[in-house]
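Example 3.
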Amino acid sequence: MTFQIRRLSTADYPLVISVMDQWWGGRPMADKLPRLFFEHFTDTSFAAERDGKLAGFLTGFISQSRPGEAYIHFVGVDPAERGSGLGRQLYAAFFAAAEARGCVLVRVVTSPVNRDSIAFHQRMGFQLESGDAQVDGIPVSSGYDGHGGDRVRFIRSLRGALPTRRAQRRAISMAAR
Amino acid sequence: MTFQIRRLSTADYPLVISVMDQWWGGRPMADKLPRLFFEHFTDTSFAAERDGKLAGFLTGFISQSRPGEAYIHFVGVDPAERGSGLGRQLYAAFFAAAEARGCVLVRVVTSPVNRDSIAFHQRMGFQLESGDAQVDGIPVSSGYDGHGGDRVRFIRSLRGALPTRRAQRRAISMAAR
């Protein structure tokens, strides 16, 4: 049971949209993923196939205004393929692409209701960022996205220890010049 | 009646979200603009203020995987400030930022129902891209975004004539190596 992991292409968009809501357990997700991610960030986004059938995808990008940072926007795995290690393989592909482009850290946010996603990111070596509230012991940033969309924020180093906040601020201020 | 145009910052996000749906005439738009655009693309995104009050904003980015392309994702102007030339000023700021980063063309999509937006882009020198349907004589790409979200696609050169399709394909294929 091996997966083919390749770069995402614009042609994948209709299929991904057609499966998304089902893959997220009926939550209406498709409108949160505009086509632009399949057009302008394909070199750090991936599709996974098994026997020619879409098994998962990841869309991510290199931060344009925060040097050294990469961001994972959406990751989906066919419910029938869960537990196969595919999520881990998609993340590994993204980490390698981000590191090859000089990134030292990866950020991702998830929903507090998505306990599987929270547990997955903890297993993948992500650290929880602080929030302004707590849900079941997990720090949550309330009203983070859109109208009151609470989010759990994660960060992961690509090179051992995370850079200090001071080093991050310095890199941002250098880039703004 | 002059506007201050400055780079967008993460701190602008809650205010923009709070006004968006009203600025779009009651259409629920806020969920289409996640915070990531206010964190990772601030060097090509702008806020406009008059007397310290938010009058408009533009979020855009440089395409990561299509060399020479820039993309405008969301532009909003306070209804009370329309007709003032602010949209034109925001676009000019974006064009200058994109050109300074080596871009030769800008893409944008809008909704077929948004006739003001279509007319604005035509006045700003954008050309209509072909579609697979027509609405009131305007070419429309059906099912472009999300579930059946029809879109009108625009393209504008930053340096006189648009590059040929062949030159665009060549640039993409070079970058993919």
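The first helix of chain B runs from residue 13 to 23. The two ends of chain B are 50 Å apart (CA to CA).
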